[in-house]
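Now read this:
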Amino acid sequence: MSTYSQIYIQLVMAVKGRHSLISLSWEEELYKYITGIITNKGQKLIAINGMTDHIHILIGMKPSCCLSDLVREVKKASNIFINEKKFRRIKFEWQEGYGAFSYSHSSLDQVATYIQNQKEHHRKKSFREEYIEFLKKFEVDYEPKYLFKWVEEEEG
C-alpha cells in the first residue's frame, strides 16, 4: 500500500532576543532563500511572511520529514545567508526554539491569508500577544519563562 498524507504545519520563528533585524529591503530575498531550502528538502512551501522580529512559514510536509531537522536546517542556512550577505552590521541569529501548529486542508486559505497579512495584523497586536494566543488556541501547555526571550527582558 502507498502512503498518502496531508500534513500542514505553520512554523513561527523569532529573531534572537526578538530584536527587529529583518529589514524590508531584504526580507523578500530571505523568504525566497528559505523557500528554496524547504523545496530542496522535498517539502511544499505554501506561504511565508513576517515582521522585522519574526516570520511565519506554512508548509505541506511529507510524513518522512522530521520537522525539527527541517527547522534546524532553515535556521542554520538562513543565518549563514544573512550574515554572508552582510544584511546586518551585527551578527544575525534566530532565537532558540520555534512554534509549530498543525492545520487541516480546509483551513489553508485562511492561514495563508493570515500569514500574508502579517504587517497589517501587527498594527493591532504584538508578537508576544499573537504567540500566546496561538499557544492557547492550540491548547499547548507552556511555561512562560521558557517562551522566546523578549527584548524588554534583555533590556531590564
The chain has a mean pLDDT of 92. The first helix runs from residue 27 to 40. The CA atoms of residues 136 and 155 lie 27 Å apart.
